[in-house]
Each structure stands twice: as structure tokens, then as C-alpha cells.
Write a structure and sequence with these properties.
Layout lengths: L7 H19 L1 E3 H8 L3 H13 L3 E6 L9 E5 L5 E8 L2 E7 L5 E8 L5 H18 L5 E9 L2 E3 L4 E5 L4 E4 L1 H9 L2 E6 H12 L8 E6 L3 E7 L2 E3 L30 H4 L1 H12 L6 H6 L8 H9 L3 H25 L3 E5 L7 H14 L2 H5 L2 E4 L5 H12 L2 H6 L9 H5 L9
Parallel strand pairs: 4-7, 7-11, 12-15, 15-16
Antiparallel strand pairs: 1-3, 2-3, 4-5, 5-6, 8-9, 9-10, 12-13, 13-14
Helix pairs in contact: 1-3, 2-3, 4-5, 6-14, 8-10, 8-11, 10-11, 11-12
Bound molecules: zinc ion (ZN).
Length: 424
């Protein structure tokens, strides 16, 4: 149990966080309204609102409807009061996005990583963050950075346990980035933050229970339960790509055989297509790639299938069967309201998603499935960077009141804040 529970400072933090969340959700609300919604006393709400007014997080905006006495002053949430930084890594590139308090993108830096080492990745990310902060020096930004990284992440300590594709092991990303940038750093696997991104800004806006599945070099899931990221006991929940779907299937980097990602990831789909090209004499893939099969990649298979190629279609049907089995299991286990398919190739293919729907219909139990929709992601690879910014936004009150922002609230705005206390 947390030894600090019951201490006044902690209670204050909890109350601020609670009021902050309600304000962000309601947008405009009076002090009495906040007291009703939070269950806090009017006096406590007043104290919290005074501090939020001082920080510029809310402003007073006219009067509400009177319920007998003096009409209550309305408080309006100001998403542009403070900004957050989120970054994600894909294909040896970083996307770093500056967002407002609603995780809406405001500015960005995209940068290539020179080399494949963790040091090179940290160097590139630090440079991109510095450029973004310099360009936005007139804005108030949280001194914090959310990072969506590849691999298995120990979220508590911000350590990448392993990212096998990159051959990174035990990389203390949080510590290294904190000492390079001076920012507080939060790290999570990029599919986990991808789920947050789609929930805050994308196709799953407001969904309470959803599973986001990204298909790329691997396959991974981000699980959101009751609006919160479900991370498991040591933050490794969601390793969907390493669930077994074919007992004696191909060997996986994790040591197991027949892992899902050996059958449906981009490299798996491309590999299967190159292999099957040898057995065929006609069709779109044959005409385009028979002479140089090594140039054939997963997006080419998706495109050829959309154009009606038989070989490409059969490869996708096979992949959709395996992924559909995995999704059917998820539907039965978690009963989510939404399954979101992300990643560059799969999410872009209507044909593939139709094939998936068909398998899931056959594999999942009918009753849980009636509650689930299968949809494609909206944000592409930006989902992870925006979701990484959400990691920062989830700590917004403590960062704000701990003084962890780049500058004080703008004085011209503060001059406009009236004396505290009206409305009661
Ligand atoms: Zn595996």
C-alpha cells in the first residue's frame, strides 16, 4: 500500500487530477456543477479551481443558468494552455509530435536515425526534441517526453528488455533520454501507445474497451480496458504476435514455433509471396516480380490482391485466417467493443479487413461478437506518437503543479483572471 495515502499533499494531487479530467471531458462547467460531478465539497472545488485559474488551464467564461440564487460563473477548459511531446519510432525514423492538452497535433519533427544502434536512436530523438522545443519556445510545454518504442518494455523503469529485430537488449531508454534532454521520460511499447492514440484522436474516440492491433515488422496489440491501458503484471501484456497459431509452424525469434507474427507480419507476407512466385507462371505478382522477387514487399501483395491477383489474394486469405483466429480468441476472452486494425499495409486494405471479418465471424462466439466492431485505424503511424504524448498528458496535473513546464503562464493572460471566489 502507498505510504503516502492520507497525506494532505497526496489528497490535493488526487483532487486536482479528478477535477482536471472532468473539466477536460465537460469543457464548460460551473463550480457547483463540478462539485456535483466529482463528489467533492464546494470549498475543495474552489481551491482546486483557483490553482487551475492561476495556471491558465481554465478561464471564466460568462454565467450559467441560475437555480434560484446568483447565476454560477462558467469555467472553460483551455486545451492550448500547455503542450505535450510524444515520439514514436518506425522503420529507423522518429516522429515527434507536439500536442495540446487534448492530444491534438500542433507541430512535428520527423527525423531519420543514422545507423541501427540505440545510441544513434537516442541522438536523433534528442535532436528532434531540441528543435521542436526551440521552435515552440513561446509556448508553455511540459518538461516531459512520452516515447513509443519497439520491443518489450519494462514501463516502470523505462527499459527496453528486448527489441529482437533491432538487436537491442536491456536498453535503459528512460535514463539515457532523461540525462540527454533533461525531460521526464515515459516509455511504452509503440502498439500500446498506438491504442491510446486511436482512443484519444482516432477511430476509437471515447471507446472504453478496445484492442488495437498493429501489423508491421511484427504484430502487437494495445489493450484498453475501462478507458485505461491494460499493461499486465510486468507491462508485457499485448504480445499477440507471439501467441501460437500453428503448432509446428515456422521458428520465431522468441524461440517458439508457429507464432502469429511468423504468418501475418509484413515480412511474413512478403516472404510467403516470394516463395510462392516460384510455383506460378502468370498473374500480376508474376509479371511484376518474377525476375526480381527480392524487391517484392508486403504492400505490393496487398495492392495486387486489391487488383484481383489470384496468388496475392490466396496469400492474404491465409494471413487473414490466422489473424482472424487470434482476433476471434480476443473477442471471446475480452469481449471488447472495438478491434482496431493498424499498421501501414493491413489497415489500408479494405479487402483484407473484409477477409478478417469473415474469419472472425466463423471463429468467435456469436454472443460476444454482437458487441464488437472490427474497424481500421485512422491515424496510421502517428497513432503511436500521439499516444506517447497521452502518456505525458496522463501526468499533466502533477507535472504542472510540480513546476515541470518550460515557462510560467503568460502574464497578459493572468492579468485577465479575476479575483477568485465568485459564483458561490
Ligand atoms: Zn514468437
Amino acid at each position: 500500500m502507498n505510504a503516502r495515502i492520507g497525506q494532505p499533499e497526496l489528497l490535493k494531487e488526487i483532487n486536482r487530477a479528478h477535477v482536471f479530467e472532468i473539466l477536460r471531458h465537460e469543457r464548460t462547467v460551473s463550480r457547483p456543477g463540478l462539485a456535483d460531478l466529482t463528489g467533492l465539497s464546494r470549498a475543495t472545488v474552489s481551491i482546486v479551481i483557483d490553482s487551475l485559474l492561476r495556471e491558465g488551464i481554465v478561464r471564466e467564461a460568462g454565467f450559467g443558468v441560475s437555480s434560484g440564487g446568483r447565476p454560477p460563473v462558467l469555467l472553460e477548459f483551455r486545451p492550448e494552455a500547455v503542450f505535450a511531446l510524444g515520439a514514436s519510432m518506425h522503420d529507423y525514423r522518429w516522429s515527434v509530435i507536439l500536442t495540446d492538452l487534448d492530444a491534438a497535433p500542433q507541430d512535428r519533427e520527423d527525423i531519420a536515425i543514422l545507423g541501427s544502434s540505440a545510441e544513434a536512436a537516442i541522438e536523433a530523438l534528442s535532436d528532434a526534441v531540441a528543435r521542436l522545443l526551440t521552435r515552440n519556445s513561446a509556448r508553455r510545454v511540459f518538461r516531459a517526453l512520452g516515447v513509443g518504442s519497439p520491443g518489450l518494455v519494462d514501463m516502470r523503469n523505462g527499459i527496453i528488455q528486448s527489441a529482437t529485430d533491432l538487436e537491442w537488449f536491456d536498453v535503459p531508454l528512460k535514463t539515457l533520454l532523461q540525462s540527454r534532454t533533461g525531460l521526464e521520460v515515459y516509455v511504452a511499447n509503440r502498439s500500446k501507445v498506438g491504442a491510446l492514440g486511436e482512443r484519444w484522436r482516432g477511430t476509437a474516440k471515447g471507446a472504453q474497451d478496445l484492442i488495437y492491433i498493429s501489423i508491421g515488422t511484427g504484430v502487437a496489440a494495445g489493450i484498453i480496458h475501462r478507458g485505461e491501458l491494460y499493461i499486465g503484471t510486468n507491462s508485457s501484456a499485448g504480445e499477440l504476435g507471439h501467441t501460437t497459431v500453428l503448432p509446428d509452424g515456422p521458428l520465431c525469434g522468441c524461440g517458439n514455433r508457429g507464432c502469429l507474427q511468423q504468418l501475418v507480419s509484413d515480412p511474413a507476407i512478403a516472404g510467403r509471396a516470394r516463395e510462392r512466385l516460384r510455383e506460378t507462371q502468370h498473374g500480376i505478382l508474376f509479371e511484376r516480380y518474377a525476375e526480381r522477387p527480392e524487391t517484392l514487399n508486403a504492400p505490393d501483395v496487398f495492392r495486387a490482391a486489391e487488383e484481383g491477383d489470384t496468388l496475392a489474394t490466396s496469400i492474404l486469405e491465409e494471413a487473414a485466417e490466422y489473424l482472424g483466429i487470434a482476433i476471434g480468441n480476443l473477442v471471446n476472452l475480452f469481449n471488447p467493443e472495438m478491434i482496431v486494425i493498424g499498421g501501414q499495409s493491413g489497415a489500408g486494405s479494405t479487402l483484407f479487413v473484409e477477409m478478417l471479418r469473415d474469419t472472425v465471424r466463423r471463429r468467435a462466439m456469436a454472443y460476444p461478437l454482437t458487441a464488437t466492431t472490427l474497424v481500421t485505424a485512422e491515424l496510421g503511424s502517428d497513432a503511436a506518437a500521439l499516444g506517447a504524448a497521452v502518456l505525458v498528458l496522463q501526468h499533466a496535473p502533477e507535472l504542472l503543479f510540480g513546476g515541470n513546464t518550460t515557462s510560467e503562464p503568460q502574464s497578459e493572460f493572468l492579468d485577465a483572471v479575476p479575483e477568485a471566489g465568485p459564483g458561490y
